Automatic annotation (TrEMBL):
InterPro entries: LysR_HTH_N, LysR_subst-bd, WH-like_DNA-bd_sf, WH_DNA-bd_sf. This is LysR family transcriptional regulator. The keyword Disulfide bond does not apply. It comes from Lacrimispora defluvii. Residues 1-58 form the HTH lysR-type domain. Keywords: DNA-binding, Transcription, Transcription regulation.
């Protein structure tokens, strides 16, 4: 089995047509057909049902499809890594946060003459820890509910990672000037059911244990009125600025939010039940870029008086 065969298989499955797959792959229809036929021969199964309406995956084809996507993703990642220009590469993975993104700008300014390429990847906790485990990012910034720390540490032990806590945080409600509660200083936990929320990226662990979403811990998200669902930080900001929709998040608010007229209302009767920290690979010394990033993150946390 070759990578090329999987590329042709996925393209055909996505388009349901040999001709359209050939157009995407910049080759001929007979060549795509030949490659698919050889893959079926190698595997000893039929991957497609062929009819007048095109190509439809068989059950065996559907089983292969998800695995093929994973293999191609990893193949592209390997190709990208080995083809990088000479010089250092430093990447951070983290949750959606303008504060974390701003620190990349800061580290770029401090190291822009040192031939370093910088990266920042947003994702769920599982994706963040996978990035660090797979050497895509050197460090990952996560926050977790206290009740889930033990399970989280068990999971990252299997990924050969270490977790270093930095701060204890509570939740707050982000809202903009279009919201009727904009001039308030705080809300009560029981009042959250009266608000309309933006639901961000869903974050579940699906490994040895199935545990609840970690983004807000003690608050039962299923009881909230989620009016908008998105994984776009830009859309979240736009909705907060221009509508009466709120966003529930950690009480660690970017100055850029405040400059855009977005406020954070504290949740009065909610204790600090979230731990923010970073993960790194075990027994691996941090680069000077990683140490700089963590040092600047600590300074930012210290300014909010939440540093451990």
């Amino acid at each position: 089995m070759e990578i090329k065969q999987l590329e042709y298989f996925v393209a055909t499955a996505d388009h349901g047509s040999l001709n359209k797959a050939a157009e995407q792959l910049y080759t001929s229809q007979p060549n795509v057909s030949k490659v698919i036929a050889n893959l079926e021969k190698d595997l000893g199964v039929a991957l497609f049902e062929r009819n007048s309406r095109g190509m439809r995956m068989t059950e065996q084809g559907k089983m292969l499809y998800g695995h093929a996507l994973t293999i191609l993703k990893n193949s592209n990642m390997i190709r990208s890594l080995v083809q990088k220009k000479t010089g250092n590469y430093f990447s951070v993975s983290g949750y959606q946060s303008s504060i974390l993104a701003k620190l990349i700008a800061d580290i770029y300014e401090a190291h822009k003459d040192q031939n370093v390429t910088f990266g920042f990847r947003e994702g769920t906790v599982e994706e963040i820890t996978d990035d660090v485990s797979e050497h895509i990012s050197e460090i990952g910034i996560v926050y977790l509910a206290h009740t889930q720390l033990q399970c989280f540490k068990h999971i990252i032990w299997h990924k050969k990672l270490e977790f270093f806590p930095l701060a204890e945080l509570s939740i707050c409600v982000y809202l903009g000037s279009h919201h009727p509660w904009y001039d308030r200083e705080s809300v009560e936990l029981k009042e959250l059911s009266q608000l309309k929320f933006i639901e961000g990226t869903k974050d579940f662990f699906a490994m040895e244990h199935h545990i609840e979403r970690i983004s807000v811990g003690a608050v039962q998200m299923e009881n909230l009125n989620n009016a908008v669902c998105t994984n776009s930080d830009y859309l979240i900001t736009s909705m907060l600025k221009h509508t009466d929709v709120c966003c529930l998040g950690i009480d660690f608010v970017s100055r850029e939010y405040e400059e855009q007229g977005i406020r954070a209302l504290k949740v009065r009767d909610c204790e600090k039940f979230l731990t923010l920290g970073y993960v790194k690979q075990k027994k691996k010394d941090l680069s000077c870029e990683a140490r700089f990033y963590i040092r600047e993150l600590k300074k930012t946390l210290s300014a909010y008086n939440v540093l451990l």
